[in-house]
Design brief:
Blueprint lengths: L3 E5 L3 E6 L6 E8 L6 E5 L7 E3 L5 E3 L5 E4 L2 E3 L3 H10 L4 E5 L12 H10 L1 E7 L1 E5 L3 E4 L6 E5 L4 E8 L7 E7 L2 H8 L5 E3 H9 L12 E3 L15 H14 L6 E8 L3 H13 L4 E5 L23
Helix pairs in contact: 1-2, 1-5, 5-6
Bound molecules: zinc ion.
Zinc ion binds next to α1 and α5.
């Protein structure tokens, strides 16, 4: 089966609060040519203002994934990248007038909605895939968190989180990638944070835009948001949403199985760097040259947004 690369049919514009600055950020997403990948452009800067979405350009992974190059940075890129990857977009340009992508409602759902409204355009070149051939793993320093990529005939994520908190606890989810399930189950999951952390950050001038409108917030015992959760396993699903965004920095879909235990942006990026340095662990294939056994997800869309959005 041959799949072509995809971009947007037209520009998308949005304006929403930035998580860190608390100020409104204007963002324009534009179509890009085949093989161009995803680039971020800081329109508020005169020079050195373009950063490509690449694992080697990740400069910080505290709180969010931040890209940085030659003194320029763009923060909180993982949710928009997740939406692109979930919908199968290969090429786009994202322009902002700030150092961060708008946080929207803390999930990828608003981005998915806007992209679907603009529509996807097939491009002349074939889609490329990164096929995992040998297992690659990384652990965090404490030895607790671990994330691996192992060979598989499809893109699949198995994620396990374990928080010592009565409202989160241990959650497990297995996601065999398809656009339909991404749209229905994953993209709506919001980011989450603990009240004591939010207070600590805001006292230091960080996360100034963080609110109950763009995150699930937990005190010592419970969820503070009046509306509660969008689904019982929203926490682990958000971690999967983040992992899809982080993995997409490879610039093409993966054929492989990600297995994560207590992972996060830092470990996800360590995994990508380790993978790229292990040249016998992967190979690049066009869609037409993949093994017959490879399962490529449907490109059809079946939107079913929650009534609350
Ligand atoms: Zn996130």
């Amino acid at each position: 089966m041959k799949n072509t690369q995809k971009t947007l049919k037209r520009n998308i514009q949005c304006k929403s609060v930035g998580l860190h600055s608390g100020r409104k950020v204007s963002m324009t997403i534009k179509p890009a040519g085949a093989d161009q990948g995803i680039s971020f452009v800081r329109k508020d800067m005169a020079e050195n203002n373009i950063i490509k979405a690449l694992p080697s350009n990740v400069s910080d992974t505290t709180l969010a994934t931040t890209l940085g190059l030659n003194g320029t940075r763009i923060s909180t890129v993982e949710h928009i990248l997740s939406a692109f990857s979930g919908l199968g977009i290969d090429n786009a340009i994202i322009e902002t007038d700030s150092f961060e992508i708008p946080i929207m409602d803390g999930s990828a759902l608003p981005f998915v909605s806007m992209i679907k409204e603009a529509g996807l355009k097939d491009q002349e070149k074939e889609k490329k895939y990164l096929v995992i051939k040998k297992p690659v793993s990384v652990n965090d320093e404490s030895g607790e968190g671990k994330v691996s990529l192992i060979p598989s005939s499809r893109f699949e994520i198995t994620y396990h989180i374990d928080f010592n908190h009565p409202a989160v606890g241990s959650q497990f989810y297995n996601f065999v990638f398809s656009r339909e399930i991404y749209e229905r189950e994953i993209c709506l999951a919001r980011t989450f944070g603990f009240l004591h952390e939010v207070e600590y950050l805001q006292a230091r001038g960080l996360a100034l835009g963080g609110s109950l409108q763009n995150a699930i917030v937990l005190d010592d015992n419970k969820i503070i948001n009046k509306e509660g959760l969008r689904c019982p396993d929203e926490f682990v699903k958000h971690k999967i949403l983040d992992a899809i965004g982080d993995l997409s920095l490879l610039g093409m879909p993966i054929i492989g199985h990600l297995i994560a235990y207590k992972s996060g942006h830092k470990l996800n990026n360590m995994l990508l760097r380790t993978l790229l340095a292990s040249q016998d662990a992967w190979e690049l294939k066009t869609s037409g040259s993949l093994d017959k056994s490879v399962f490529l997800p449907s490109v059809k869309s079946h939107a079913r947004f929650p009534a609350s959005y």
